[in-house]
Design brief:
The protein has 171 residues and is mainly α. The protein has a domain at 56-166. Helices cover 80% and strands 0% of the residues. It is built from four helices and no strands. Helix 2 (36-85) runs antiparallel to helix 3 (94-126) and helix 2 (36-85) runs parallel beside helix 4 (137-166). The radius of gyration is 26 Å and the shape is elongated. The termini are far apart. The mean pLDDT is 83.
Length: 171
């Protein structure tokens, strides 16, 4: 079959896709008539939404894989801090409060650096295939959407963990 021939290159697939889209548009205009522009607007929004969903899922997977890498450290710090706060106030001292604060700072720095390194490794592995390609507007847009959604997911994680840390008894 001609579609499975190894001699087809990327340009041939682009031409076939362009002709197919053109035929679909012409047939759609002939069938739908006056409603064609409204239908195409709705179809465009659906396709754009599906593309954004793809970018969100890809970025979310990378962020969650990096988060799983540091989840044990985050859980340990939160557990130690919450356990410390359950100790009666009469047994807490200024030195122990300062020790927990420094533990949170050093542990937090370690977690942030480890998470960042792991996330950068995941992003690089996801985009390893396109590193050799020329920087076109498609590549820039793809990378920008991926990084935007990765940042938004990291921001959501911060918004969840932030109140836990702020409401500890040492502040």
């Amino acid at each position: 079959m001609i579609l499975f021939n190894n001699q087809f290159n990327k340009k041939t697939y682009q031409i076939i896709a362009s002709v197919t889209i053109a035929v679909i548009l012409i047939l759609g205009f002939l069938v739908l008539g006056n409603y064609f522009s409204e239908v195409m607007l709705i179809v465009s929004f659906i396709v754009f939404g599906i593309l954004l969903l793809f970018f969100t899922i890809a970025a979310g997977l990378a962020v969650l894989k990096a988060l799983f890498y540091v989840a044990a450290e985050i859980s340990l710090l939160i557990y130690l801090s919450k356990s410390y706060c359950e100790v009666p106030a009469s047994k807490l001292t200024l030195a122990s409060n300062n020790a927990l604060k420094s533990l949170l700072v050093v542990g937090g720095l370690y977690i942030v650096i480890s998470f960042g390194k792991s996330l950068i490794d995941k992003v690089k592995s996801d985009y390893k295939n396109i590193e050799s390609e020329k920087w076109s507007w498609e590549k820039v847009t793809t990378v920008a959407f991926y990084l935007l959604f990765a940042f938004l997911i990291v921001w959501q994680i911060y918004r969840v963990i932030g109140p836990i840390i702020v409401n500890l008894c040492i502040y």
